[in-house]
């Protein structure tokens, strides 16, 4: 997901740009749908659990970097670098404030928007650095960030599981940057990876660039998974030696974390448990995100070429030939901030209903929630609602209301530059 949808494509836009943006919108939709599954269906179906654990939220972050480039491209091309950075930072402020508001609702979801918004603000500062420098920063965060994360956790002696702290400004900033479920020290690496991916897609021949992204992503994914599997027996032995039984150790080494690696030293490098921010986790999930983005952009480019070869008015013909199902998907994907916010508000309503009226505890899982509130069936309902939202947006041809708000604030901030 991204809070900043790509600029709207008009009838005169470059055909290649349109195909590329549709692919990014589809990727955004998949990220949101995956997070819905993580929130509503995690643990109900094992293959589903594997698919939605860690991958959707990190795809969401990588796409945030892609959108940072797309939403500021006009300013950069006109030489207005300060305006570009101010507009992106303003979007980040809007997103973070929405995240704070959502965090005050009684939802069981670990809301990502505060971290996401602060990550955007930092990305705005780094946006114009050369690609090799951004790559070096991202690599340093991926390798050194997990150890710094653990150092801050240990020094603070926290007894919480990734929650944001509103006790005072210092604790709030510490939880956003280091100790939260989606700490900026980790998410910035994802966003910078997205910035680099967007630059590749914008500057290189489209199909070749997409294939390159997919190949690099597949390689990163394979290396991280292999390192995790090869090292797992040693990781388990280390955890068991510290007093944990084997079953608990296996869950710790493979299950969802809360933003921090499961152990320091070499374990923080090779273990790839989701939501731990370890080097292995970052490399694995960045690789998966680049692979998916590359594949979707490649499909979009092949589609564009096919239509261009058979029509003089390729832009209009491509729009006419867009599969009917793809239209609401792309439209919903162009409004991820609104879609995500609606989903979190729905989970807040679910939380109130199942805890007060049905006696179900969303923390320890006691009680029984009906299929339409929790589980794969509930996930299906949320996906159907997202598609219905996309149908409405496709019909009225407008962006989501929160995207419109973020764009309005971003344009006002850009005028200051």
TrEMBL record:
<feature type="transmembrane region" description="Helical">
    <location>
        <begin position="282"/>
        <end position="303"/>
    </location>
</feature>
<keyword id="KW-0472">Membrane</keyword>
<feature type="transmembrane region" description="Helical">
    <location>
        <begin position="374"/>
        <end position="396"/>
    </location>
</feature>
<feature type="transmembrane region" description="Helical">
    <location>
        <begin position="51"/>
        <end position="70"/>
    </location>
</feature>
<feature type="transmembrane region" description="Helical">
    <location>
        <begin position="209"/>
        <end position="230"/>
    </location>
</feature>
<feature type="transmembrane region" description="Helical">
    <location>
        <begin position="324"/>
        <end position="354"/>
    </location>
</feature>
<feature type="domain" description="Heparan-alpha-glucosaminide N-acetyltransferase catalytic">
    <location>
        <begin position="20"/>
        <end position="208"/>
    </location>
</feature>
<feature type="transmembrane region" description="Helical">
    <location>
        <begin position="108"/>
        <end position="127"/>
    </location>
</feature>
<protein>
    <submittedName>
        <fullName>DUF1624 domain-containing protein</fullName>
    </submittedName>
</protein>
<feature type="transmembrane region" description="Helical">
    <location>
        <begin position="26"/>
        <end position="45"/>
    </location>
</feature>
<feature type="transmembrane region" description="Helical">
    <location>
        <begin position="134"/>
        <end position="152"/>
    </location>
</feature>
<dbReference type="Pfam" id="PF07786">
    <property type="entry name" value="HGSNAT_cat"/>
</dbReference>
<feature type="transmembrane region" description="Helical">
    <location>
        <begin position="172"/>
        <end position="197"/>
    </location>
</feature>
<keyword id="KW-0812">Transmembrane</keyword>
<feature type="transmembrane region" description="Helical">
    <location>
        <begin position="82"/>
        <end position="102"/>
    </location>
</feature>
<dbReference type="InterPro" id="IPR012429">
    <property type="entry name" value="HGSNAT_cat"/>
</dbReference>
<keyword id="KW-1133">Transmembrane helix</keyword>
């Amino acid at each position: 997901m991204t809070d900043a949808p790509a600029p709207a494509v008009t009838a005169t836009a470059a055909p290649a740009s349109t195909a590329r943006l549709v692919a990014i919108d589809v990727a955004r939709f998949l990220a949101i749908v995956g997070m819905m599954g993580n929130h509503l269906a995690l643990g109900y179906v094992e293959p589903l659990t594997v698919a939605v654990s860690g991958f959707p939220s990190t795809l969401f972050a990588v796409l945030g970097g892609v959108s940072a480039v797309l939403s500021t491209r006009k300013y950069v091309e006109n030489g207005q670098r300060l305006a570009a950075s101010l507009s992106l930072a303003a979007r980040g402020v809007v997103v973070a404030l929405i995240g704070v508001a959502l965090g005050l609702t009684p939802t069981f979801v670990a809301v990502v928007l505060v971290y996401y918004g602060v990550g955007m603000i930092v990305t705005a500062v780094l946006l114009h650095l050369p690609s090799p420098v951004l790559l070096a920063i991202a690599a340093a965060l991926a390798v050194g960030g997990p150890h710094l994360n653990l150092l801050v956790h240990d020094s603070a002696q926290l007894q919480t599981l990734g929650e944001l702290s509103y006790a005072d400004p210092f604790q709030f900033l510490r939880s956003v940057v280091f100790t939260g479920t989606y700490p900026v020290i980790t998410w910035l690496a994802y966003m910078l990876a997205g910035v680099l991916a967007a630059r590749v897609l914008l500057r290189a021949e489209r199909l070749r660039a997409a294939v390159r992204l997919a190949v690099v992503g597949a390689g990163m994914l394979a290396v991280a998974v292999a390192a995790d599997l090869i090292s797992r027996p040693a990781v388990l032995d280390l955890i068991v030696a510290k007093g944990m039984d084997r079953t608990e150790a296996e869950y710790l080494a493979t299950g969802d974390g809360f933003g921090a690696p499961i152990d320091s030293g070499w374990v923080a490098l090779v273990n790839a448990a989701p939501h731990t921010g370890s080097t292995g986790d970052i490399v694995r999930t960045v690789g998966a995100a680049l692979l998916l983005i590359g594949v979707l952009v490649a499909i979009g480019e092949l589609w564009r070429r096919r239509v261009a070869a058979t029509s003089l008015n390729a832009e209009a013909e491509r729009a006419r030939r867009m599969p009917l199902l793809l239209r609401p998907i792309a439209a919903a994907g162009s409004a991820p901030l609104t879609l995500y916010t609606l989903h979190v508000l729905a989970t807040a309503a679910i939380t109130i209903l199942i805890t007060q009226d049905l006696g179900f505890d969303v923390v320890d899982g006691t009680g029984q929630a009906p299929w339409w509130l929790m589980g794969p069936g509930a996930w299906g309902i949320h996906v159907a609602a997202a598609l219905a939202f996309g149908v409405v947006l496709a019909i009225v041809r407008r962006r989501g209301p929160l995207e419109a708000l973020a764009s309005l604030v971003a344009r006002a901030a850009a005028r200051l530059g």
